[in-house]
């Protein structure tokens, strides 16, 4: 893979806003069955897709957009891509308003949709890029050099003349990213880019996104994902959406600590030792979850209120009571658990 020798942008110095969203809301009219529409032709039912979203993404940041299906992630991407107009609120991309200056916003932003069918499979990789370069208005004098540069950037320079129909899913995803980079965008929107990839290809694509696009190219990336590995391993921050509402933003580790007690994992042969129950009754640990592993050792997941200091105290009490523990370490929340706890905390706040 040919890399462009551009030094990484220090994350500590990134303060310029790349994407600014203030009070963004959007409703859609719900489609009705023909019989219902004929009985009540003037009635209208709407569905809330986005509800008063406020979000800032700094230049060069890698933001993960998390949420279940129907949370509003795709609608937000469409607003930023100028495909739909919000009902209220304002969104800007590198200072360009997506409603008042859509052409300027499109010049600095590119959506990357994981749709392999949007490529021309009977053309080669280079021919695909030349075709879309013409649509982006890339000058003929720069065309050949730009195509070579992008194919090298995504590691497809050796297969430039190969038909796209013969590419693997991972190669097609890389070509889609190369296509998005034709217009030299400063903001990329990635919608589940690894959902159709095998684990090895997905890992390679994540490394490319992190090291090349963000690290060397300095792009701002907003990633919609259902993958815990992507959210935890790639993103500087995550934003959690549910039913059109922004419930929480922040680094994954901090968010996990805020929405629930720190979870730790112990491997022991003494899973039935009375010390476990005693510490639970005293409130030192909570929510024991046993899972038997090989070699006679049992894995026990526990929540320890109070973080690392409390975990060290709990471990000391267990070992002093005679519990044999081979390993004791932090067990991060899964993505599903994180989403569930954020939604539960939001409901508790609303009830309060």
What does this structure look like?
The protein is α/β, with parallel strands linked by helices. The chain has two domains: 11-255, P-loop containing nucleotide triphosphate hydrolases (Rossmann fold, 3-Layer(aba) Sandwich), CATH 3.40.50.300; 261-332, 2-Layer Sandwich (Alpha-Beta Plaits), CATH 3.30.70.260. 37% of the residues lie in helices and 26% in strands. The protein contains twelve helices and 14 strands. The protein has helices at 34-39, 73-80, 102-108, 125-135, 140-153, 169-180, 199-216, 228-234, 252-259, 274-281, 307-320, 335-351, and strands spanning 17-29, 46-58, 62-66, 88-93, 96-97, 109-113, 187-191, 220-224, 237-242, 245-250, 262-268, 286-292, 298-304, 325-330. Strands 6-7-8-3-9-10 form a six-stranded mixed beta sheet, sandwiched between helices. Strand 12 (286-292) and strand 13 (298-304) form a beta hairpin. Helix 4 packs across helix 5. The longest helix has 18 residues, at 199-216. The chain starts with 16 loop residues before the first strand and ends with a helix.
Defining traits:
14 strands; globular; single chain; alpha/beta; four-stranded antiparallel sheet; Rossmann fold; six-stranded mixed sheet; 2 domains; 352 residues
């Amino acid at each position: 893979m040919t890399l462009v020798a551009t030094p990484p942008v220090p994350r500590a110095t990134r303060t310029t806003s790349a994407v600014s969203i203030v009070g963004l809301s959007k409703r859609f009219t719900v489609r009705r069955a023909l019989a219902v529409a004929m009985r009540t032709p003037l009635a209208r039912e709407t569905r809330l897709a986005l509800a008063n979203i406020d979000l800032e993404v700094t230049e060069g940041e890698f933001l993960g957009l998390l949420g279940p299906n129907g949370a509003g992630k795709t609608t937000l991407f469409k607003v930023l891509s100028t495909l739909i107009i919000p009902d209220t609120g304002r969104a800007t991309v590198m200072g360009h308003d997506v409603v008042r200056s859509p052409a300027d916003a499109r010049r600095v932003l590119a959506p990357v949709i994981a749709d392999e069918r949007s490529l021309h499979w009977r053309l080669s990789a280079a021919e695909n890029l030349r075709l879309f370069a013409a649509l982006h208005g890339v000058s003929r004098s720069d065309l050949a050099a730009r195509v070579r540069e992008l194919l090298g950037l995504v590691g497809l320079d050796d297969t430039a003349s190969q038909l796209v129909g013969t590419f693997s899913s991972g190669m097609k995803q890389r070509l889609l990213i190369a296509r998005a980079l034709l217009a030299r965008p400063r903001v990329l929107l990635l919608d589940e880019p690894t959902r159709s990839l095998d684990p090895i290809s997905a890992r390679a694509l994540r490394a490319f996104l992190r090291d090349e696009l963000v690290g060397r190219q300095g792009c701002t990336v907003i990633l919609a994902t259902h993958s815990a590995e992507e959210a935890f391993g790639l993103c500087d921050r995550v934003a959690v959406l549910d039913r059109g509402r922004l419930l929480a933003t922040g680094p994954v580790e901090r968010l996990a600590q805020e929405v629930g007690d720190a979870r730790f994992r112990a491997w022991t042969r003494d899973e039935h030792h009375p010390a476990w129950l005693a510490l639970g009754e005293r409130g030192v640990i909570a929510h024991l979850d046993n899972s038997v592993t090989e070699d006679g050792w049992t894995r026990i997941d526990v929540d320890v209120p109070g973080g690392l200091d409390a975990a060290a105290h709990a471990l000391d009490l267990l070992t002093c009571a005679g519990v044999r523990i081979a390993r004791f370490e932090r067990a991060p929340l899964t993505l599903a658990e994180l989403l569930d706890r954020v939604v539960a905390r939001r409901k508790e706040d609303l009830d309060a």
